[in-house]
Amino acid sequence: xxxDELEVWRRQWHSQPAVPxxxxxxxxxxxxxxxxxxxxxxxxxxxxxxxxxxxxxNPTVPFIFLAVGTWLxxxxxTIIQYQNDKGIWTPTKETTAAYVDLSIRRxxxxxxxxxxxxxxxxxFTLFVLVVxxxxxxxxxxxxxxxxxxxxxxxxxxxxxxxxxxMFLTTGKRKKTQAELDYLLNLQRQLGEDQNG
Amino acid sequence: xxxxxxxxxxxxxxxxxxxxxxSRLAASYTNNPSDRDDLFQDIALAxxxxxxxxxxxxxxxxxxxxxxxxxxxxxxxQRRPSATPAxxxxxxxxxxxxxxxxAREQQESRLFDAIHRLPIEYRxxxxxxxxxxxxxxxxxxxxxGESNVGVRLNRARQLLRExxxxxx
Lengths: 196, 168
What we know:
heterodimer, A: 196 residues, mainly alpha, B: 168 residues, Rna Polymerase Sigma Factor, Chain: A, Arc Repressor Mutant, subunit A, 2 domains, 7 helices, globular
């Protein structure tokens, strides 16, 4: 392999500027942040704990129902998340083709996760709104037309928030779909080259 | 020394020894200096994550380059690869006496442009070859046979020659 043409290219190739030292330091700092990844689990657990505290302070049927329902959603969500994440941590083999395959699986699971997340968040919002309505009705909060109007406004606001989340998710879904298309094309190219 | 400290020391040593090669590899996947730095960081972080699982089944160099190429593929798939017109290629060169080395710089720039224009499967083989890797090492990094490395390298060299001639 030691021919002149390659040697010239090698010299030119190695003349590229070296990696700046600040960049290496930046990477070293980032490795510290990796240790804090588990923090994302705190939010749903805190929410669930909050619901339990509320149910203990007000041991009425709606509060208990809300606490139990919230925990069911958290547990169900965790199980689905766990199932969806299975088999996408490591490639089946230590090869580029296996890594491309892994990336494809990750993209597909991500798309599934986006769809499931939308359905899940819509159902959870509906659940909270329905229980909330029952609570307010139980307290006799709906006496006049204005009370109903105020509640309708609040519910409309919740619907708008869910709609905005859906809209924002569409962009993420499109980006992931484009990534998946690219990877599938790349997998085809690599496969063709290896077979041909 | 704790296991964690030993791992960190090993990571720093790997990064110091292979930083240049990884940076060149990143540059072969993106023509923008800030993207190259981003990709370099991605690669380094992927190495950091994978390092505890490295059991010495292959050489450290093979291990690092395998991660680097795989990370680079994921990176460009997320960045929606562009046609990368070679005229837009921007590679900073901090060396002194730019006038004196102008012709040489032009040749180097042409080579980087041409490599960047190669299809991925050929780009991978040629960049690893230029990093002084053997057929066996390249085969181990890319997960293909040695004969396939030879086929791809021949094709890559042929394409590279054509691209360099066109740009002259």
